[in-house]
Amino acid sequence: KNHYEGTGGNVDIVLVVHGPALAAFKSKGISAAISGRFAGLVRQGLEPHACANTMQGMDISLPDLLAGFHAADKGGVVKLAELQGQGYAYLHP
Known about the structure:
The protein is of the alpha/beta class. The chain has four helices and three strands; from the N terminus they run αβαβαβα.
């Protein structure tokens, strides 16, 4: 949210989630506040991708995740590398 606000919305953000962090994006049991906040970011243009390898390993499917997720079919790390090749900056906590 801060990044969108800081750029006046003039930014493309792709979120790539892999590994144990993916469990935080499961729709079951998540609060309405967080779900709503995530949906708002997707409406602003956030493009979330979930690592297909992680989904398989954790027995998670796209319908199990918050609305808006796409599968990174080749894997999350491959998706990150592809995005960097397209000029995206890789920001992480």
